[in-house]
Design goal:
Layout (H helix, E strand, L loop, with lengths): L4 E6 L6 H12 L4 E6 L11 E4 L8 H22 L3 E5 L3 H7 L5 E6 L3 H7 L1 H4 L1 H22 L2 E4 L2 H11 L6 E3 L6 H7 L15 E5 L8 H14 L4 E5 L5 H10 L4 E3 L11 E5 L5 H5 L3 E4 L8 H8 L4 E4 L5 H5 L11 E2 L4 E3 L4 H13 L1 H15 L4 H12 L1
Parallel strand pairs: 1-2, 1-4, 2-3, 4-5, 5-6, 6-7, 8-9, 8-12, 9-11, 10-11, 12-13, 13-15
Antiparallel strand pairs: 14-15
Helix pairs in contact: 3-6, 9-14, 12-15
Amino acid sequence: MTPKRIMFIINNLGGGGAERVVSNLCKGMRNYEKYVIIFDNIIKQEAKANLIFINSPPPKSIFKKLISFFVRVYKIKNLKRRIKPDYAISALEPCNLLNVITKGKEKTILTFHSNWSKLLAEDPYFAKGIFGKIRSFIYKFAFKFLYNRRADVLVSVSKDVAQDLIENFGLNPNKMKVIYNPVPIEEIENFSKEELRNYEPIFKYPVLISAGRLTKQKGHWYLLRIFKKLKEKYSNLKLIILGEGKLKDYLVEFSQNLNLKTFVWDRDTLSDKFDVYFLGFQKNPFKFLKNSSIFVLSSVQEGLPMVLIEAMACGLPVIATDCPGGNKEILDPDCNLKVEKMRLGEYGILIPPKNPEEISKAISLLLENENLRKEYAKKSLERARDFSVEKIIPKWLEILK
């Protein structure tokens, strides 16, 4: 019997959470013939699928963006005609928009990884200038009219994201499914055992670690500001930030202006004499997570952060903001209250976003209370298994039936 075909559409296979979700879905959906369509030749994730690069990286000018959009529509339409997928699953924008526009006979599934109310209000790409307002209007229109009418299933990575889409953008609740991101627990455990090698001297000290794209959404400057104050009390404390992004130069300069000795992966010679370590993209971030003391997520907006679950799978006690998105669903699933001050959740500590004082309290508490730190490390491992590939993939297979 010929296996059914799944086509994934995503901008690239870089180091972001949505990209890792596509990679994990490809690994977990074993009995399907899989194709992954990417526009930009960035491949940092393994995809057990037929990879098709259509050579359409994001241009800068508005005119070229418009041309690029229609080129992508044409190429995806042709690929769908040639491959004849049974399902087309897209992740992020504009991939969802391209997926519905090129819809044929295949079952069309759109996935949403962000709180869009927050994104449209605060991301400069949508919130600033006439072109930002035009983009915002296009997506609001597309959500309500194109997505509702042409998509077969709408998949949200958290209940918060789903609620936002239904209440604020009019998406059809009958088409909406909440499926958490799948995480390969055993694979993470194996990778976390890899030797640190040149990085080992750093981990002789207590290490705070954070990971994610170097963008406004992740709020890294709050963490840097907090770390500067913590150094006054914990002089041997180190901070590691994993990830790349457009705010790299800004964050490095911000760190240096705080008089923190700052290591940058593509500039400096590694030693244990630095305070802050920008380590860039790491193919195996899990060995760094496993050997750190505390994981901190200082985001101002999320969908369902893969890296938070991955840190928990490495046995790290975690601290995360109660920002729009799924952080609270991970760390304190039975809590329906907005977090106004530090909260000891069931599986980790929640703090209000944009609040350096409360994040500082939470970090100090875990640094000084070894029993609590060990208890949360144990709880992290327990909770991470709820997001295992083995538990999440069957929910996707139900949609594909």
